[in-house]
Amino acid sequence: MDKEDIKRLGNDPRFISGIHNYCDRWCERCPFTARCMNFAMGEEQFADPETQDLNNEAFWEKLSETFQVTLDLLKEMAEEAGVDLDSLDIEEAKEEENYRKEVAESHKCSRAARAYGKTVDEWFDSAIEMFGQKEDESERQARPGIPSIGPLAEDTTLADTTQVIRWYQHQIYVKIMRAVHGSLKEESEELDEFPRDSDGSAKVALIGIDRSISAWGEMRGFFPMLENSILDILVHLERLRRQTENTFPAAREFIRPGFDKVKLNG
Ligand code: SF4
User: Residue whose CA is closest, atom 1 of ligand 1?
Assistant: First the structure.
């Protein structure tokens, strides 16, 4: 794939501009793969079965090719836009960046999200034996006495539930970090009339939290004997959800290209 191929894909009307900026990167479960340039690039770039193996040298070679092509394209676009890529004060930028990273890492939402990721690992480690037994049973079975509290589909399996929890386990932290970090940057910019990227990231984190809450609700049905530990996790997630909404009050209203519908007035 060369520069022209990337430009050609960029101009293809099938694709929704910027859709991949506020998604959860779960392409296997995404309803917009046909409208996503990022997905199409991956398909085109890595169509050869050999390249699909992450351990295969060809994969990294292809990736490095894309890097060079992207860099060339970036230089070309910067020139066209009159942006001098050499003019940045690297030291100053680095200091600012380190400061923002430290503040973001110590933010209460980031700390709570990081703690959640760790708790999930600990929970799965402690439940590993029971998981083995459950997986040997039929995936769908009666869950007497404890109704599911999550809105996942009726035939949700233990594997589905686990996948959802695992997918968002660390992504919530990453997206919250990005949101907090971005909001610090935005403070110095006049963006009042524009949607904020930090709200977009916070929204993706919130969606991950919502789905994780649902999945833990399902997990409660699979493992009633672990109810107390699951409820602890649910309480933690609910607090994180509220804190994130309070920190980013406009996040839920952020319109993600493709995924959210624009509300029309009148
Ligand atoms: S928008 Fe969908 S297809 Fe594109 S990168 Fe995100 S999850 Fe994958």
Answer: 20
